[in-house]
Amino acid sequence: MSTSETQSKLRKSIADENQAGLVYIFDTTLRDGEQCPGAAMTEDQKLEVAHRLETLGVDVIEAGFPVSSPVQFRAVQRISRELETPIIAALARALPRDIEVAAEAVKDARNKRIHTFLASSPIHMKYKLGKEPAEVIELAVAAVKAARDLVEDVEFSPEDATRSEWPFLVELVSRVVEAGATTINIPDTVGYTTPDEYGALFAHLIANVPGSEGIRFSAHCHNDLGMATANSLAAVRNGARQIECTINGIGERAGNTALEEVSMAIRTRGEFYNLHTNIRTEEIMRSSRLVRQVTGMAVQPNKAIVGDNAFAHESGIHQDGVLKNRLTYEIMTPESVGLESNRMVLGRHSGRHAFKDRLVRLGYVLEEEEFQQVWNRFLDLADKKKEVYDEDILSLVNETQTEQEFQRYELLSLHVSAGTGSVPTATVRLVDRKEPEDPQTITDAACGDGPVDAIYNVLERITALNIKVERFRIQPLSEGRDAQAVASVLLKINDKSYAGKAVSTDIVEASARAYLDAINRSFVAQPEELMEKI
Ligand code: KIV
Ligand code: ZN
After folding, report:
1. What CATH number did the domain enclosing 451 receive?
2. Is 26 exposed, middle or buried (0-12, 13-18, 19+ CB in 10 A)?
3. Are 387 and 347 in contact (CB under 8 A)?
4. Edge-to-edge, what's the strand order for the sheet holding 409-417?
């Protein structure tokens, strides 16, 4: 088939899907989501999230920004090779090198897309790009043509579209559509727009861009004014047929549109929107938990859909109503997002079979060897605490999988002395695998204002890194006084932020491990090694 035949087929199938009311869910957790401080993931973690997104049913996965680092490139490449169903998109600035590298990274994907962008607002064109509007149009057209020479499916985003002039946007979008872009994304880059205004912008573009019926218009919102979900839904009410979003709404500053919110709004208010998505909403909770685990970013308890309290009815009047008829206070069932209402708590007498079954329900089918490691950890934990909850099990899986990755430092032992009237002191022994063939054991001690401060002082000295603790938090993982604690930290190491997380029944040990986790991540993600190597 010639490329013009393939293009007309693509445009025809977009027109049919638009007509049928299918809203594509474009997940950018691995790209825009990962851009928020401390959310950097390792290659293996990205792969794991990508597989989860495939199970969740997303249509497009924006797997990364390949030119920005070798880690990004390799992750996009591996995701492209391993996934079967979704379109794998790679981000590229409107520059020839970015586009070539993006195309190379997604080369092996069954369905691939290049997503190229260039700023279109007066403020960005003048101060960021230093370019006249006419030059911006030429560069955008050239970028789309270059991308179309390498792949069939090209998306273009006029960055800061919501602060751009409408006649200019119509002209720019018309020209890139003519050049071969089939998805037009309209980003609210700075989270500035409102639902009425954003909806009207889509209606205006669709009415004025020639050939718009064969184009998939897309919403991409940031949540600076708390309107990302409302804005995205206003866009689809006005003809957009793709929403760009992230799990748990993670992303730059206040975050991006939350996938779980828009997909559940379209499902729950189906009669109002008369639209549908391909999301298997029963997979939402598992996806949310995985992203919490790998990024170390907690979800606020009252967060819509995935917050701990989202389905909890505390007040007596509400409980009474729900018991009589769930619909009194429940607009969607916990099961519809994958929350099981009759959670079974495991303990030291639970058998391997019950444990395996629980893992499968939580979304993990493990190879025998890995299962055995998680099972051993479960037995250890069940000795320490009476009841083991889903959250505990997820953290056991996560710890086991993380342990299989390269870890420069490993904690061997920790001794802390603290108390009223004494100087808190920490003694630490760890292994340094700088030379993996010749690991060194290091022992050192330091004092501090408290036990955690003493530990962090000694670890900073051992690692000889310039470390600033930007955030430190301890939260219980489940219920009861014997609950495990999750310690999460955000460290600034040589001017870059890295999140770390660890779980233990001992909060002091969890604090030490979380700090080491962030340090270990800083050795895995080295964003500035450059692409010349590929
Ligand atoms: O917010 C934004 O403008 C973006 C673009 C790169 C699409 O993330
Ligand atoms: Zn964005």
Report:
1. 3.30.160.270
2. buried
3. yes
4. 409-417, 425-432, 440-447
d(CA 222, CA 239): 19
Are residues 240 and 367 part of one domain?
no
Q: Please write the tens of the pLDDT for every residue from 43-61.
A: 888 999 999 999 999 999 9
Ligand 1 atom nearest 31 alpha carbon: 8
- Same-domain pairing of 372 and 361: yes
**Average pLDDT of every residue of the chain:** 91
| CA nearest to 403, candidates 286, 503, 482 | 503
Which of 30, 31, 68, 220 for a ligand 1 pocket mutation test, highest count of atoms within 8 Å of Cβ?
220
Those residues whose beta carbon sits under 5 angstroms from the ion ligand 2 are 32
DSSP type of residue 430: E
Residue 305 lies in a domain: no
pTM value is 0.82
pLDDT for residue 534 = 33
Query: Quick one: residue 480, left, alpha or beta (phi over 0 = left, psi -120 to 50 = alpha)?
Result: left
Structure tokens at 259: 């996938």
Query: Which residues are near ligand 1 (CB < 6 Å)?
Result: 32, 117, 157, 159, 185, 187, 189, 220, 222
